[in-house]
Each structure stands twice: as structure tokens, then as C-alpha cells.
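Researcher: Re-running this chain for the archive, since the previous output was lost when a drive failed. Same request as before.
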Amino acid sequence: MKIRNGYVSNSSSSSFVIAYDPLFFGNIKSFFEEFDFGCETYIYDIKDFTDSMPNYKEKIDAMKAEGKQILYFWLDHEFYPIMELMKMINESNGGNKLVIVYGGEE
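Model: Regenerated C-alpha cells:
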């Protein structure tokens, strides 16, 4: 798996910004960095996102204040079910452990 910093354009990928409870999910960033799913995953600094999409900064700051970790990444469409699995786990456990701040086909 490739972990890149900076802008990467790939039409077969979707970008996501997620806010998650690290006490429940652990360190999702490390998860993507350590395990090779056979897909390209790009992890970015959240500041890159908020600089280009300032209307999301307040929401992201509020999520941080709640103790959530923020992750900005791109995931190959072939592995989109990873996000669906995380959403299902979240919904089965109260629905407050994961928020997709930005993501998918946007």
C-alpha cells in the first residue's frame, strides 16, 4: 500500500474526512499505514483540507473538542467497503463513534 503526503489525483478514489472515537476504533491512521489491503491509500494533513474547504473547519474543530480524532484520506473505490464496514460498526454501537465529515462521491 502506498501512503502519500500532498495532493494526488486518482479518478478511482474517493476522499474522506472522518471524525472518530479513538477509544472505540483505535488509531485508524495507523491501521491504514500498517496493513496492506492491496490498494492505494493517501493520508493527508487535515490542514490541507481546511485550507481548501474552510467552511468545514468549524465542524472539524467541534469534533476535535469532543475528543474525536480527525483523518483526511483517499481510498481506492475497490476498497470502499472498508468505509461501509466502519459505518455499520458505528451504527451497531450507538451511532456516535464515527462521523463522516466529508466523503464519498463529493
